[in-house]
Amino acid sequence: MMKQKRLMLLGGLRYLIPVIEAAHKHGYYVITCDYLPDNVAHRYSDEYCNVSIVDKEAVLAVAKEKKIDGIMSFAVDPGVVTAAYVQEKLGLPQAGPYESVCILQNKDRFRKFLSDNGFNAPKAKGYDNAKDALNDLAGYRFPIIVKPVDSAGSKGVTKVDSADGFESAFEYAKKHSISGRVIVEEFIEKQGCSSDSECFSVDGKLVYVSFSAQRFDDKAPNPYTPAAFSWPSTFTHAQEEELTSELQRLLSLLNMGTSIYNVETRIGLDGKPYIMEVSPRGGGNRLAEMIRFSTGTDLIDAAVCAAVGDEHQHIEQKPYKGYWAELILHSEGEGIFQGMRVDDEVKEYVVETDLWVNKGDIIHGFKGANNTIGTLVMKFDSEKELYYALEHQSTIFKLLDDVQFC
Questions:
Q1: Which residues lie below 8 Å from residue 266, measured CB to CB, with a gap of 6+?
Q2: Domain assignments of the chain as residue spans, ordered by start
Q3: Which of the chain's termini has less CB crowding within 10 Å, N or C?
């Protein structure tokens, strides 16, 4: 009888549920790990282990004990380096070499790698303390972005327009950094919308690339947390081709293997394409699920199979079946959730409503992805319909009574 393969997933967020479902579909035994036993994904796995996902040695010890066949950190940024470490130590299927994953996951190392290899990149540098950063501040052109080198979900990120707000922004970023290190970089003003979407490589060759239109809520407590996504992107075909070529060059330089990637890109006002982030994991905000909705391509299933060394379904580039949007439902302030209303004129476009809170739950202002209260998936027949819905979100999608703010 064939041995049941064992897949370890780092983290316990809601975004792991479709990963667990895909693994169970293939008959894999799923072990979820983190230090928060009440996280929702643990209810769906076969086994839970209480261990910090940033403690590489502790996770390695558990992985050895459980005799795992593969390990992933899907939509959970802090676990990506740990997963790569365990993969390399145990000879498990790898997204790429451990050192390459470390470069991709550390924002200041990644910026330096891009600059050293001739990619378009903003001026940037990492710092351990505000004093050293202040000494260099005259060499930067404002506005600048100040953020942790190793966090995700837009936590700890501030756009700074002058030296006056720098020190408080630096300390805010440092508070959200695992390593206590902060990156300062010049802000790249963009043409159209930036992109945050999913890609997939097989043996280092990109076989699937997607670009989205990433949108923000200027009224949110953190206006740099993505509040909506739409597909196709606002890039031209030529811009997407150039970005695809540069992404392939990056993966080749880093000797990456078979993996799903969350990729953030933008086109600057200077007309140049910029690769902002590339992480060998699925993205948050259900981005891989949106690819499955919009094209039928199942990157989650392929990533799960690849993680344990099994052959996965053939992945190829496919066109979008219509115009798609995902709204990240959120509140602009703290309060008690009462419900949500979708205006009658757009109900026909709603494919799925996924609320993560119940009536009476306390909800918080949208400071990061962890403050999401649900998602709304929509499909349109034309770009005009899509843009109308996105531009009128405040009137056609409402939290009942605008939430009872505390």
A1: 188, 190, 191, 194, 195, 273, 274, 276
A2: 6-92, 123-186, 195-405
A3: N
